[in-house]
Design brief:
heterodimer, A: 311 residues, alpha/beta, Alpha-Beta Plaits, 3 domains, 6-stranded mixed beta sheet, B: 502 residues, abc type-2 transporter like fold, two-stranded antiparallel sheet, 7 strands
Chain lengths: 311, 502
């Protein structure tokens, strides 16, 4: 992989008020977004939110009705080389009747990588995608996970600055999923900005540097998980205390229900929990049961997009 | 359970309009195409006549008669290849410019290349002015020149020409008989009278003449000599002939010793008639006409007809394989591969152009393999026509490649392309001559066929392999095919833009 050429603060992609009506529907209603070098951005939204339209606009497959998509905001006037883009479609967009090696060769050539450089890159990518021992296998004989890895491998031969992935881990086993995220981590470590759409909440929560939630063609939230929780729900943890008898004392930051046999307390950190329990003990009101719930992306997502079914 | 399985089958069919079309619409379409061909195109149809060309190296009265006879036949559409007189007298015969064999060969070859004629009737220089009988008679030479495409044409025209000479022969025999009868009448006036037995004998002879003349109905009225006795204008002519009856109405053949006047006769008239008939039986038709069939192409090729079948099959399968290869575009669109390629350095022009080029090359290879096999097994003499073959193969493959790409860019899915292409290709092949030979089609069907690649391709290959035409004669075919390739290719490029930007 190449040397890290940009920091995570350097934007490689900027969307400014992008609008697009697609198939008679306003799919994008003024999207503004920034993607930074070396960042893994998780793109999240219900079906029909406009994620695919946005990816197609970014990749150039669709032309926005208005707004700007700037791929190289830190453009060096001396540098004629445009920002390199890689696209990993949701279904394995590879030739099933070509071998792994042949697929890498043709997609590398289509990106303008040739000769020794291509050979070298194929060797690197095979290692990176853990497909070195299957170079002569036809793509159709690979497992689902291998096909996904090959799908991604075909998109990085030209060392893209931006990699767009549409649901890269759908239908793969945990080992392959782990490997795929490891591959993405390596890419971001080398400076590639990765934008992925997924429905795997826990993956976005744990793997992505930043999360964007989209609904009805607009971005409804953008930030890290804690930022999102903080903005939409407030404290990230909730402690539910249940008592054997009605609790009569008023305690600040406790919200009681009727008939005051349970109370809820929001915590910024789980480190605050012992202190809460200490207070209760001092008041001689130790709870019979303590339930702790940490808010996650699903809560944020449902909070922002509602619970009604979508397309 | 079986009912449920049955229900699933029908539900799937109902929900799939393409499959419905294949199941119900396609048979109807094909039935209609073949019904149209067979009702209006094949020889049984009302507008289908055998197209016969006519050329005579020397125009003679007999030749003009033969041409008129062919022209009057309702099954034939006989047209002269060069301007021909409607009648010829002796003076005109002597003064006319004769065509040498080389010139005639060239005119015939040019006419054959047009594909307008099923057969050409050629009268050589030694075709006589009139039909002779007796010892001087020689069979009249008639040549039927065919390209071998329509074997029915030879049989049919042979039959019509033979019929003409049978009628001429019968007419001549009838005139002989009339001469005999008139002579008998003449003898009755000057010599021994014909008694009832002799009259009966004459009647029997007339019947014999009729029988020997292959049953032509022309003779039936003269079975009753009394009718001729009453209305025979010849008798006046015969009577006025002072030298006796040595000829009859200009037709030579009455025996010398039968020429008679009442003074010379030493035999009874009846005896003279019997003797004449015994010495001069009616000759066979084969003695009158000699029909030869000539296939110029066969002189230089072992198996020229195979080339046409090879071309027909090759074009049919070329269309199928081309659309199959073009369908890869739709597969790529469905799998997302096309999106990946589109955002690479390859633009849509490269994608469509690259695929077109690939299909073109594959098509050329496919046709070449087919013809190499035909050469190996059936000796179509590919090496002799390699330039024409290359030109036609490139043009045909280019047109089919563009056609396949256009279909692919118009269809939404591979399944749709499969259904649509099967209908269109089979229809084109049926009308265009890949399934039914074009020579068997009516002019109308041939005109319709001109809207297909198959027809133009087959006509081109036919010119190359059958008529051994020079490459320059392929201008029309190549222009149409390459023009189609260009127009359809550009249309494919235009319609492919739907994948680029929405």
């Amino acid at each position: 992989m190449t040397e890290l050429s940009a920091t995570k603060t350097s934007p490689v992609l900027t969307l400014q008020n992008v609008r697009k009506t697609y198939r008679g529907r306003e799919a994008l209603k003024g999207i503004s977004l920034e993607l930074r070098a070396g960042e893994l951005l998780g793109f999240f939204g219900p079906n029909g939110a406009g994620k695919t339209t946005m990816i197609r606009c970014i990749s150039g497959l669709l032309k926005p009705d208005s707004g700007k998509i700037i791929r190289h905001p830190f453009e060096d006037p001396e540098d004629d080389e445009p920002v390199r883009l890689g696209l990993v479609p949701q279904t394995p967009a590879i030739y099933q009747d070509l071998t792994v090696q042949q697929n890498l060769e043709v997609f590398g050539q289509l990106e303008g990588v040739r000769g020794r450089t291509l050979k070298h890159r194929i060797g690197e990518v095979l290692e990176w995608a853990a497909l070195k021992d299957r170079t002569r296998s036809l793509a159709r004989t690979l497992s689902g996970g291998m096909q996904r890895r090959l799908n991604i491998a075909c998109s990085v031969l030209h060392d893209p600055d931006i990699l767009l992935l549409d649901e890269p881990t759908v239908g793969v086993d945990p080992q392959s999923r782990e490997r795929i995220y490891e591959m993405m981590r390596q890419l971001t470590a080398d400076g590639t900005a990765v934008l992925l759409t997924t429905h795997q909440l826990e993956e976005v929560e744990t793997r992505c540097d930043r999360i964007v939630i989209m609904d009805h063609g607009t971005i409804v939230a953008d930030g890290t998980l804690s930022e999102l929780v903080s903005r939409t729900i407030g404290q990230p943890h909730r402690v539910i205390l249940r008592f054997d008898r009605p609790y009569l004392n008023a305690v600040e930051s406790f919200v009681f229900d009727e008939p005051r046999t349970s109370a809820t307390c929001a915590l910024a950190s789980m480190k605050e929990l012992p202190q809460v329990l200490l207070v209760l003990r001092q008041l001689d009101q130790e709870p019979a049961r303590i339930d702790v719930r940490s808010y996650g992306l699903q809560d944020v997502f449902l909070e922002l997009t509602g619970r009604s079914l979508r397309e | 359970m079986m009912l449920t399985i049955l229900r699933i089958l029908f539900l799937r069919l109902r929900n799939n309009p393409l499959e419905l079309m294949l199941v119900f619409v396609m048979p109807v379409v094909f039935f209609s195409i073949f019904a149209a061909i067979f009702s209006n195109g094949i020889a049984t149809g009302s507008d289908k006549k055998l197209r016969v060309g006519w050329i005579a190296s020397r125009e003679t009265a007999l030749g003009v008669e033969l041409r008129a006879f062919l022209e009057s036949n309702s099954s034939l559409d006989c047209t002269p290849l060069i301007s021909a007189p409607s009648s010829v007298d002796e003076e005109a015969e002597l003064q006319q410019e004769q065509l040498d064999d080389e010139t005639t060969d060239k005119i015939i070859a040019d006419a054959q290349r047009t594909g307008r004629y099923d057969l050409i009737v050629r009268l050589p220089l030694d075709f006589p002015s009139k039909l002779l009988d007796g010892e001087d008679s020689v069979p009249c030479p008639v040549q039927l020149v065919t390209d071998g495409q329509n074997p029915m044409a030879v049989a049919m025209v042979t039959s019509v020409v033979t019929g003409f000479f049978a009628q001429k022969k019968a007419s001549m025999a009838a005139e002989q008989l009339m001469g005999l009868v008139s002579a008998a009448k003449h003898a009755n006036g000057y010599g021994n009278p014909v008694n009832a037995d002799q009259s009966s004998a004459m009647d029997g002879n007339a019947a014999a003449v009729a029988q020997q003349s292959r049953g032509v109905r022309y003779f039936s009225p003269v079975n009753d000599p009394s009718k001729i006795f009453g209305n025979d204008p010849m008798s006046e002519w015969l009577i006025s002939d002072p030298s006796g009856v040595t000829s009859l109405n200009g037709v030579i053949g009455i025996p010398e010793d039968w020429a008679m006047t009442p003074e010379k006769s030493e035999q009874t008239t009846a005896e003279l008639i019997e003797q004449a008939l015994a010495e001069k039986p009616v000759s066979e038709i084969s003695d009158t006409v000699s029909i030869s069939v000539e296939i110029p192409q066969a002189a230089t090729q072992e198996n020229p007809r195979i080339a046409m079948y090879a071309a027909g099959i090759a074009v049919l399968f070329l269309l199928f394989s081309s659309t199959g290869n073009a369908a890869a575009l739709l597969e790529e669109a469905e799998s997302g591969t096309l999106d990946r390629i589109l955002i690479s350095r390859a633009g849509l022009f490269h994608i469509v152009g690259g695929k077109w080029l690939g299909i073109l090359l594959l098509g050329c290879m496919q046709i070449t393999v087919m013809f190499l096999w035909a050469e190996l097994v059936f000796r179509i003499q590919l090496a002799r026509h390699v330039l024409g073959f290359c030109v036609m193969t490139f043009s045909t493959a280019a047109a089919t490649a563009s056609f396949a790409m256009l279909l692919a860019t118009l269809c939404k899915s591979r399944a749709q392309l499969n259904a649509v292409s099967v209908v269109i290709i089979l229809s084109m092949s049926a009308v265009g001559g890949s399934m039914i030979p074009r020579f068997a089609m009516s002019d109308r069907m041939k005109e319709i066929g001109q809207w297909t690649f198959n027809a133009w391709a087959l006509d081109g290959y036919q010119k190359v392999f059958w008529y051994q035409s020079p490459v320059t004669s392929l201008v029309n075919e190549v222009s149409v095919l390459l023009g189609s390739a260009l127009v359809l290719g550009l249309l494919a490029l235009v319609f492919s833009q739907r994948w680029k930007r929405g």
